[in-house]
Amino acid sequence: MDQALTPSIFDRFEPASGFLGLRAALAAPIAQICKVEKGHARRTSVVDLFRSILAEGRARARAGLEARGSGLACARLISQLEDELIGAIYDYVVAYVYPADNPTFAERLTIVAVGGYGRGMLAPGSDIDLLFLLPYKQTPWGESVVEAILYVLWDLRQKVGHATRSVAECMRQARADMTIRTTLLEARFILGSAELFIELQDAFDREVARSDAREFVAAKLAERDTRVRRAGASRYLVEPNVKEGKGGLRDLNTLFWISKYVYRVRDVEELVAAGLFTSAELSLFERCEEFLWRVRCHLHFATGRAEERISFDIQPLMAQRLGYHDRAGLSRVERFMKHYFLVAKDVGDLTAIVCAALEEKQAKPRAIFERFMQPFRRRRARAPHGDFIIAHDRISVADENVFHRDPVNIIRLFWMADHHGLPLHPDALRAVTLSLREIDADLRADKEANRLFLEILLSRNMTEIILRRMNETGVLGRFIPDFGRIVAMMQFNMYHHYTVDEHLLRAVGALSDLEAGRLPEHQQLVGEILPTIVNRKVLYLGLFLHDIAKGRKEDHSIAGKEVARTLCPRLGFTPGETETVAWLVEHHLTMSTYAQSRDLSDRVTIESFAAIVQTVERLKMLFVLTVCDINAVGPGVLDTWKSQLLRVLYWETEVVLGGGHSSADRKSRVAAAVAELRAALPDWSDEKFETYAKRHYPAYWLKVDVARKLRHAHMLEKLAGATTPLATAVELDRTRGAVELTVIAPDHRRLLSIIAGGCAASGANIVDAHIFTTADGLALDTIFFSRAFDFDEDELRRARRIADFIAKALSGEVIVSDAVQARAKQQQPLAAFTVAPEVVVDNSLSNVYTVIEVSGLDREGLLFELTNAISRLNLNIASAHIVTFGERAVDAFYVTDLTGAKIVSPQRHAAIKRALLEVFEPPAEKRAEKAQSVG
Fold first, then answer.
1. How far apart are alpha carbons 59 and 19 in whole angstroms?
2. Quick one: angle between helices 39-66 and 27-36, nearest 10?
3. Which of 43, 74, 58 is closest to 10 using CA atoms?
4. Residue limits of the HD domain (predicted)?
5. Helix extents (H) in 742-791
6. Is the distance from CB of 643 to CB of 702 less than 8 angstroms?
7. CB 841 within 8 A of CB 912
8. pLDDT tens digit sequence for 443-459
9. Are 627 and 525 a contacting pair, CB within 8 Å?
């Protein structure tokens, strides 16, 4: 075949007409091939022709998209290309493979596009869903043609989902299976017998669609719930799924499926005439659909596969392809993702509109609606304010002028929903979104409006749900403009799971839940402290504002302090209360930083933190704020270790601030921890336990939870009398999705480096480390590294292999540096992120040790390289504090020289900085080559 024919075929089509007529244009080249070639050679040449047509057509669709084209246009063009190609394949098969000169009535065949393809839109990596419709009485000819068409499509490496059925079989399965019913709802004729397709449509309308719509609506919304839970319950997850996630394309599809089924419309434009959408809402639907399709098509082309998750590594490329630029303190990645989340929010608004309309039409079961609206606390409602009514047990507006007549009613609506424990009717929420212009400077200055808002914030009912409704309708961002700036703002890092606004709402929700006893896993942590805080409103507002200045050029903690000083007086705070809120915002990261990256057994750490906090009341509020902040970062982030560190820092600081007195002094807390372990070891004699307890320093008793203490006790018991004590153990930490590796060995200055090297050589990425030394010279080190497998059995096998390798390294059977060097050649960097490395050498943070703080981009083997570099500098590591914030590693090492003294020479400080900064320099192979042999 002459490949020069392929470009000439496409040159016949104007861009505006797409590929319409391509099927007919291919007839001549196919005929020419079939005239001169026979058998297998003919089929090969025909398939090659189709392959080149498919590749060129997709390339043209991609070029149009990348020239700032429409996502919908791209999806429709790819769908049209498939239509024309399938038509050409059909023509080839019935003309040259299985010709039927005089086809009988039973030799009819209809090819129907169903599912997503039925909508006439295909993403570059989408499956092609086909229904081959045959008469009730089939002949071998029809089955042979279908098989031949499928084989050509498979040879073209098309992902084809297909079914071959009669009309009667379609109806029978549609009645029994809601998924098949949905695919047929979007059936679209491609080619063949039009009479068969009309018969299918008529039968579907008569036998299936006229049945009770409630069943279909309930099934689709239940299916949506399951899908959203699988993809991630929040629409504000920072790595969203554009197809299956909340606020994604599937949500728009579900809305249209339901509307199409209930209102019997064929096109989305008909929803206005049906009274479901206004013209403005239809325009919003179309804008959301266009944006999501543009993102999806770019995502498929950029990754070369049917990738639906906008992961961190692809987000920068997507932002570039879609034409975003750095602006106003936000990177182009953050601007792109903010746009995405705003669109997801708009999809949520449209979902609420459709659900309200379906309920009015009584096509939607009440239970489904309540699940969609989220649970509210049920109370007997009194008659509401005159401008509001209770409709179907939900707060709604009395008339359309409620908010124009009194703009305070916008805030009052949400206050009443919380006060009466009733959900908000979607009609009321819709009216709010149409009245946002009423929220102006006068309303923001109104004392009653501010009083109502503060009562919502401080409510003990459903604070988080009400604030989220205010945010979703746009009220919160208009009423508090600084909050509006961070709505849908993502934080381009692997640490935060949610957008900034969602994080703040979850933090406030966590505080409300802690007060109400709804967070049992963290209740013990704050249970004694939270009720003693004098001023709740200071704590709540400080938590609500702590990240409100994210995305600005200046430090968000400093900028946030100024936001607090402006907003607090408006809400009626006294000058003293205002300063405390501002202080909380400024120092909201201080306690977690001290707890995780400082040696809490060092007196200077506690004294310097106490100097910042100054009062016990501030300490209490900062402690609770920090707990809620970490808890709202993502599931499992506030684990038992972080909780224990925060608790130790709190009590140690309370002693200093209380002048040496505390509600639980250090000795009594150590004694309580010892007694707790004693109760867990009833089989041990008093003498045996007393001897064991003396092996541990106070820091161990205060920092480690009882479950780990118990495991350590049994491990050390088994080592009793061993000539060279060495033991390892692995556990799965399901709370944080990590593996816990415990190593007990004789302490020496390169021990941590060998353990870290063993992890690096085995491909284990360390995310945390707990380092302790016993009084008799044993190191008790616990390393946490990321999981690699979904199944626990697989992960435990991997963890045991890593533990065995480390044991061999510690016993001298393997050379760690050789294994690390071999592993370094396979290492894949976190290309999506850049973190400027920084090294600080500080002698003021401890009376005994020099503290080296290192931060930079995390990767496999980083801790090994850092500790190895410190060892080469002839420094002893007394303690290490390893913290990972997503892609950012922040490690602190308390070190001395070989004589046990601090490092005071400026020249040595400079040498330390140079050596540790070199660790972050590429390429990985050169870094590995420089590593000295250890052990």
1. 13
2. 150
3. 58
4. 519-622
5. 751-761
6. no
7. yes
8. 999 999 999 999 999 99
9. yes
Assign a CATH topology to domain 5-211: Beta Polymerase; domain 2 (3.30.460)
pLDDT of residue 612: 95
In this prediction, residue 209 carries a pLDDT of: 78
Tell me the C-alpha distance between 453 and 896, whole Å: 54
3-state secondary structure of 494: coil
Encode pLDDT of 478-498 as tens digits.
Answer: 999 999 999 988 876 666 778
Amino acid letter at 640?
T
* DSSP states of 674-736: HHHHHHH-TTS-HHHHHHHHTTS-HHHHHHS-HHHHHHHHHHHHHTTT-SS--EEEEEEETTT
Separation between Cα atoms, residue 816 and residue 806, nearest integer Å: 9
CA atoms within 13 A on the CB side of 815: 7
pLDDT on residue 264? 78
What span, in angstroms and rounded, lies between the C-alpha atoms of 231 and 219? 18
The DSSP-derived string for 413-448 is: HHHHHHHHT-PBPHHHHHHHHTTGGG-SHHHHH-HH
Domain span(s) for CATH 3.30.460.10 in the chain: 5-211
Q: Which letter does DSSP use for residue 327 in this model?
A: B
- Contact of 718 with 727, CB cutoff 8 Å: yes
The amino acid sitting at 425 is: H
Task: Tell me which H or E stretch contains 837.
Answer: none
pLDDT digits 0-9 by tens, 335-394:
999 999 999 988 888 887 777 677 666 555 554 434 434 444 444 444 466 889 888 788
Q: What is the mean pLDDT of the chain?
A: 87
Fold category of 214-371 in CATH: Four Helix Bundle (Hemerythrin (Met), subunit A) (1.20.120)
Q: Distance of CA 224 to CAs 98, 156, 178, 417, Å?
A: 44, 33, 13, 26
How would residue 284 be classed by pLDDT, with cut points 50, 70 and 90? very high
Name the residue with tokens 């936001």.
Answer: 563
Tokens 């109104």, residue? Answer: 446
Q: Are strands 850-857 and 875-885 parallel, antiparallel or unpaired?
A: unpaired
Query: Helix/strand/coil (H, E, C) string of 44-95?
Result: HHHHHHHHHHHHHHHHHHHHHHHCCCCHHHHHHHHHHHHHHHHHHHHHHHHH
For 887-912, how does the pLDDT look when each residue is reduced to its tens digit (9 = 90+)?
788 899 999 998 989 999 999 999 99
pLDDT in tens, 851-891: 999 998 888 888 999 999 999 999 999 888 888 877 788 89
Q: What angle do CA 853, 854, 860 make, to 5 degrees?
A: 140
Span of 39-53, 243-257, 588-602 with lowest mean pLDDT: 243-257
Cβ–Cβ < 8 Å for 454, 572: yes
- Start and end residues for every CATH 1.20.120.330 domain found in the chain: 214-371
Please say whether the beta carbons of 126 and 308 come within 8 A. Answer: no
Percentages of the chain per state (helix, strand, coil), in multiples of 5: 55, 10, 30
Q: What is the distance between the alpha carbons of residues 107 and 140, in angstroms, rounded to a whole number?
A: 9
Residue 588's nearest CA partner among 647, 543, 631, 654 is 543
State if pTM tops 0.90.
no
Tokens representing 377 are 């606390």
3-state secondary structure at position 856: strand
How many other CB atoms sit within 10 Å of the CB of residue 797? 13
Strands (E), 277-376: none
* Closest by CA position to 81, among listed 62, 63, 59, 54: 54
Count helices and strands (H / E) in the chain: 44, 14
The torsion region of residue 740 among left (phi > 0), alpha (psi -120 to 50) and beta comes to beta
Buried b or exposed e, range 222-235, using 16+ CB within 10 angstroms: ebbeebbeebbebb
Which DSSP letter does residue 208 get? I
